[in-house]
Amino acid sequence: MMIIRSTIRADLEVLAALHAESLPTSLFTALGHDALVRFYAYVEASPYETAWTAAEGGKVVGVCVVSYEPDSVLRRFVSHAPIAFARELGKLVVRDAGIRGKIVQKLREPSGEPHAPEVTQIFTDQALRGRGIGAALLRACEAKLRTARISRYFVHTERDDNTAGIRFYRREGFTQIGESRSFGRAFLVMQKDL
Ligand SMILES: CC(C)(COP(=O)(O)OP(=O)(O)OC[C@H]1O[C@@H](n2cnc3c(N)ncnc32)[C@H](O)[C@@H]1OP(=O)(O)O)[C@@H](O)C(=O)NCCC(=O)NCCS
Known about the structure:
It is a single chain. By secondary structure, the chain is of the alpha+beta class. The chain has helices at 12-22, 27-31, 33-45, 73-80, 82-95, 99-108, 133-147, 163-171; strands at 2-5, 49-56, 59-67, 118-124, 152-158, 175-182, 185-193. A 7-stranded mixed beta sheet has the order 1-2-3-4-5-7-6, with helices on both faces. Strand 6 and strand 7 form a beta hairpin. The relative contact order is 0.14. Coenzyme A is lined by residues 22-23, 122-124, 129-135, 157, 164-165, 167-168, 171.
């Protein structure tokens, strides 16, 4: 039986592996496994983020993170443990020299767009997709937003080579309100009224 919990309370190692497998082009995936483990530990303790996990047979099979301050999440994560971040970034720069400039630019330039609250991460176990786990995670997150009298929320999703992800959000009632660029890639900005 699948259970949705409004907390991470999961094996962070498993969660990090699931993120890397599901979101291979994300910045945190590029930073590596240790950065992912630290990121989800950070999210769990953060007052600005809420996470939901789907578990089946005691194993985490899906995650959804909502940020109420999405513009500053990277900056906050870096300030939380700057030395560990610098070490992980250093290793990444050896592999991808261009990424350092993009991260520095991102840290310096808040977008200024009022796109909050925002689903910053959502992914489910590849072997279990299409069974409603993603939809159940969004339902749980929407219930909390409605309780807090929040009337809309947002998502940035990759514009290119992401037909399945975009279809998922459309089916879930999101509509496109614009486009943005981050780390050199194009994203659709989508909104859902609650
Ligand atoms: C998008 C995602 C979270 C949906 O989770 P899910 O558990 O499959 O969600 P549901 O079962 O509730 O919905 C399935 C819908 O998602 C879409 N979908 C995306 N990838 C899919 C896949 N590999 N298999 C089945 N459906 C998929 C389809 O539109 C499907 O709708 P349909 O049943 O009408 O065809 C999941 O596919 C995923 O983790 N993708 C990789 C990470 C990602 O792209 N995240 C979102 C972008 S930021």
